[in-house]
Every structure is written in structure tokens, then in C-alpha cells.
Amino acid sequence: MMRAAHLGLFVLGWLTPLIAAASEERRRPLHFEEVRASVNAHDPRIRQAIERLRGAQAQTTAARGAFDPRLEGDAKLVTGAYYDLRSANTELRQPTTLWGSEIYFGYRVGVSIDQRWPTYRDDQTLSGGEVRAGLEMPIWRGGLIDADRAERARAIDLQDAAAQGLSATRLDLELAAARAYWSWVSAGQNREVARALLELAEQRDGQLRRRLQTGSIAEFDVVDNERILIERRAFLVAAERAFGKASFELSLFLRDADGSPVVVDTARVPDRLAAEPVEDLAVERAVEQVLICHPEVQEAKSKLGAAEVDVKLVRNELAPELGAFFEYSRDLGELTGTDLDFTLPGNVFTAGVKLSMPLLFRTERGRANVARAKAAEQREALRFVTDQLRARTRDAASAVEAARQRALLTRDMVETAAKLAEGERRRFEAGSSNLIFVNLREQQAAMARMQYIDAVALAEIEQTRWETTTRVACD
Fold first, then answer.
1. In this structure, are residues 83 and 61 in contact, taking their beta carbons and an 8 Å threshold?
2. Farthest-apart Cα atoms in the chain, separation
3. How far apart are CA 112 and CA 183, in angstroms?
4. pLDDT at 236
5. Potential cystine with 427: which of 6, 139, 239, 433 (Cβ 3.0-4.6 Å)?
6. pLDDT top residue among 473 and 454
7. Distance (Å, rounded) from C-alpha 227 to C-alpha 415?
8. What is the C-alpha separation between 455 and 93, in angstroms, rounded?
9. Contact, 307 vs 157, CB < 8 A?
């Protein structure tokens, strides 16, 4: 029994700090930096963009694989005819990016089954076989660009586009998270304003009922205050619903370690909200940097680059296929004692050209027109992105200044409305006013407070919009 008691005390002592830490975590105000970190670490939309980038990187790796060396070989036995042959052939080929050329090295051997007799076949060699090396190079079509080099260049451009898309996604989600967070903060604080407004009417209800018993006021004032109570309770219900909706929207950006959405507790709403001073914005310099370095611009440029690769490729394919080749070979081994000894031994040099071309080029002309249309489409998309970013940057600067001024003005309005409401309550208590004016002044003070809260939240959102629009890194 004593052992069980000691064990219970030990477990309780071990759990108490953990419970206290968890309770403290639930009460700690939630700041936007925590939301932003959660978005970068767990948001599925960023993970989607990361997977798109990984796919583009894999595509680039696959495109570069066209330039991997490859080993080819074959072996055969020819028998049953007057001349027989045993042969084997192997070749190592290395494509290059230098004018579409390809180099190769090879070795082959071809001898008869009975080595006393020659085979008189084309792949006859001396007993030691033949070594060879050669170069194949296009002269016209495929010189400046070919399908493999175009695929590699296109993949590199699309990989860069995916990387820029990831950066743009991060900026867009940071702004969306800021909107959700500050809407949640303003909804939480507005709910407290509605609750405080209701508490004023509840306190007054008790005071009015006591004064009714003493006969200093009419029953009409008590009934009117009951109407005010019902009205303010309904107002609180609407404020609580707005806070609940904002909490659910915020949970899409705030996630736990497993990536599951977290609905934030009421206690984590920050207590204070104040308008922060904003430094002067260098708008035109920011516009210049944004139009050069913003991820959306870079993404559009990379997509345009990929489209222009296709234009270069199909333009090149309209040319005749004219190529040149050069090969050196030498047979090794013992002489055969036949007429082949005059052709097989020694150094052999081979050079030549080959030509192939369609007569109408209808396929190539059609593909060229498609590629040009896609490039023109991407060019217009880039133009619209730059126009849009220019307008967004200037609008963000204007919005920051307007939101700051609105916050300052509503702050002064809050102080004035609060003084008027307090003065009206005193006049009512002194019998110089009535409940209608008191209710009106209190509602005006509450609305002023809510307007200030909304104005500060909007100022924070607009500041984040400016930062996410102009936070660019020029390489």
C-alpha cells in the first residue's frame, strides 16, 4: 500500500511540470511568427510546390541522361554455309553537347571456326581483332540544337520555374496566413468588446432595479434596459460566431507536428493591439527590383525560356539532315596467309557525309507554328505578370499609408467616444440624461473600439502585403 502511494506521488511529481507547461502553452499569446513558421514547416500547399520542384529536378536528371555513355555489343555464330564465322563486337559511345557530336570506341573480332581458312565475310578480322575510334557530327540539322539538348535545356528552365514557383507560393501563403491571423485577432478582441458592452448593461440592470424599488425611476427604464440586454446578447452571439469562423480559417495555417490543423484556444488571443509606426517606403526603387527579381517574374521568364527552346528546335528541324563522320581502325593479330592480308592489316581511315531530308516539311512547319504560338503566349503572360506586379507594388505602398492613417484616426476616435460614454452615464446617474442616450453613447464607444481594432489589423495585413511583394532576392 505504501509502495503504491509512493509510486503515485512519484508519477504526480513527474506529470505536474508537464501539465503546467501545457497549461502555460495554452495561455501564451499566439504571435504571427509562430503561424508563419508553421506554414513553412507543415502547410500542404508548400509541400505540393516542393514535390513539383522534386519532379522537375528528376526530369532534369532524366534529360541529362541522354548524354550518359552507353555500351553496346553483340556476338554471333554463322555456320552451315560454305564459309563459317565466329564474331563479337562491342562499342562505347559518348554523346556530347559540342555541336551535337558523338564519339565512340570499339573492338570487334571475326574469325572462322577453322582458323586455317578465311571466311571472306565483311566482318572478318585478324586473330587479334580490330580496334576502332570515330566521331559523328551533324553539319546542318542538329548542329546548333537537337532533341536531346533541347530536352535538357527545357528541363533546366522548368526546374527553375518550379523553384521560383515554390518561392512565390511561400510569399502568397505568408500573406494569406497574415490575413487569417489578424482577422482572428480582431475577431477575438471584438468579441471582448461585445462582452464588455453586455456587462455594462447587466450592471446597470441591477442598479435600475434597486432604484425602481426606491421609486426614483419609472418601470419604463427597467424595461428599456431589458431590451438593450437582449440586443447586446445577440450582438455577442454574432461576435462569438465571427471568432469561431476566424479560428477555423486560422487552423488551415497553424498546424501541429503531424501537420493536422490546430484550432486555437480563446486564451491565446493577444490582449493588446496597437498601431506601429511605419518607415517611409522607397516605392519606385522597390518597383524596379520587383520587376526584375520577383519569383513570379522569374517563373514566367523560365517558362518563356522553355518555350523558346522549342522554337529553336523546330526551326532547326526545318533544315536538311546533313552529317559527317570520321573513323580510324586497325586490325591486330597474325596474318592469315590469304588475299585478306592485303586489306585487313594497317591503319584504316574512313570519312564521309550522309544526307536525309523530307520534301514537303509539313510536319516540321506545323510543329514550328505550334511552338511559336506557345512562345508568344508565354511572352504575353510575362508581360501581364510585370504589369500586375507594378500595380500591386504601388497599391501595397498606398494601402500601407492609408491603413496607418486610419488606425491613428480611429485611435483618437476611441478616446473621444469613451469619454462621451462615461460622461453620459454620469449624467444619467445624476438624472440629467436618459437611457436612450446612454445606450447610444456606449454603442458608439464600442463601435469606435472595434473600428480601431479592425484598422490596426488591416494595417498589419497591408504591411505584410508590402513585405511579401517587395521581399525579393536578386542573384
1. no
2. 143
3. 88
4. 95
5. 433
6. 454
7. 27
8. 69
9. no
C-alpha cell belonging to residue 350: 574512313
Count of CB atoms within 10 A of residue 287's CB?
19
CB–CB of 236/202 below 8 Å?
A: no
Average predicted confidence (pLDDT) for the chain: 87
Instruction: Identify any residues that bridge with 70 across adjacent strands, giving them in sequence order.
Output: 93
- In the numeric block, the cell 559527317 is attached to 324
Decide: 283 and 397 in contact? Cβ < 8 Å.
Answer: yes
Tell me if 470 sits within 8 A of 392, measured CB to CB: no
Q: What is the crossing angle of helices 147-214 and 295-317, to 10°?
A: 160
pLDDT per position as a tens digit, 144-171: 899 999 999 999 999 999 999 999 999 9
Give CA–CA dist 218/216, Å, rounded.
7
Return phi, psi of residue 7, to 5°: -65, -40
pLDDT tens for residues 374-396? 999 999 999 999 999 999 999 99
pTM of structure: 0.82
- The owner of cell 553537347 is 97
CB-based contacts of 286, cutoff 8 Å, min separation 6: 393, 397, 470
Give φ, ψ of 185 to 5 degrees: -60, -50
What are 108's strand-pairing partners? 89, 130
Place of cell 532534369: 60
H or E stretch at 324:
strand 321-332
pLDDT tier, 19 (very low <50, low <70, confident <90, very high otherwise):
very low
Tell me which residue has cell 504571427. 32
Nearest to 198 by CA among 226, 236, 244: 236
CB count within 10 Å of CB 253 equals 24
Closest to 303 (Cα-Cα) out of 168, 169, 162 = 162
Question: 102-111 and 347-356 as β-strands: parallel, antiparallel, unpaired?
Answer: unpaired
Poorest-pLDDT segment among 142-146, 233-237, 285-289, 343-347: 343-347
What cell was used for 472?
525579393
H or E stretch including 108?
A: strand 102-111
Instruction: Please name the residues in contact with 276: beta carbons below 8 A apart, sequence gap of 6 or more.
Output: 459, 460
Report the DSSP pairing between strands 347-356 and 70-78. Answer: unpaired
Count of CB atoms situated within 10 Å of the CB of 3 = 7
* Residue reference for cell 458608439: 444
> What's at 183, amino acid-wise?
S
106 and 70 Cβ atoms separated by less than 8 Å: no
- Rounded distance between C-alpha atoms, residue 328 and residue 349, angstroms: 5
